[in-house]
Write the structure tokens for this entry.
Amino acid sequence: MLEISPTWRSTYPGACVGVLAMYEVTNPEKNAQLDEKKAELEAALRERYSSYDRNDLLAIPVLAAYRDYYKSFKKTYHVRHQLESILFKDRSIPRVAALVEAMFMAELKNLLLTAGHDLDAIVLPLRIDVAQGSERYVCMNGEAQTLKAGDMFIADADGIASCILYGPDRRTRIQPETERVVFTVYAPPGIDGRDVHSHLDDILRNVLVFAPEATVELVETYEAS
């Protein structure tokens, strides 16, 4: 399902990408059991990081790896800001459709950058590569975006599906009627591939809360070495 570019291997040795593909999913606007699990996660995060300030968060190895990646592009990691809003501003995980919430929940638990796509909108194979700086795509907000040279991206046969700096595209976004879904995880150097696999397992368990009949087509990690 995922082809590996030699450029990605040579540019980011030690990086990892994870892929989870599931069939026969549903995507309800809300689910009571998932809401309960989300509240439990928010409480667990506040307890886990109760003694942390912002500098302590930046020292977490996973966040440090993303900090270094984003810093090279003069940007900051948005998942860190989302975690801070829960810890320091008493906000909640945003309410969106269940498949996206399942992904957000795992992101905040494990701090690993993840994109979700409607697999029926993907033209396989997917490919992990490194941008030259001329590639363009339409972001989730409908605006055209040119990729930054050096940024990791994932594309299918029709174009860019996501990149680290600007997120997933609009063309393959998860829809209310999505029945097949693929989640992709970007892990820059410094993050253990085993953590990426555990993260995929967390997404899977979250999805099974509201889609117990779903089946797994693929769960795999790919490491640059």
Q: What stands out?
A: The first helix runs from residue 6 to 11. The helical segments are 6-11, 32-48, 54-58, 61-71, 78-88, 98-110, 193-210.
